[in-house]
User: Fold this.
Amino acid sequence: MTLDEFFRIGTTVTLGSHTFEAEAIKAFARKYDPQIFHIDEEAARKSVLGG
Assistant:
């Protein structure tokens, strides 16, 4: 079975919930995508994306 056979368009699947915490997000960014605007909130605010 492929994913497109399992998940049909329009089907709703409840997977649960997860709480994202700022420090955990920054820790992930430091490890996997250490661009300054991902790990420094002030730098993010000053970026072209505005935070």
In short: The chain has one domain: 16-51. Residues 16-51 form one domain. The longest helix spans residues 22-32.
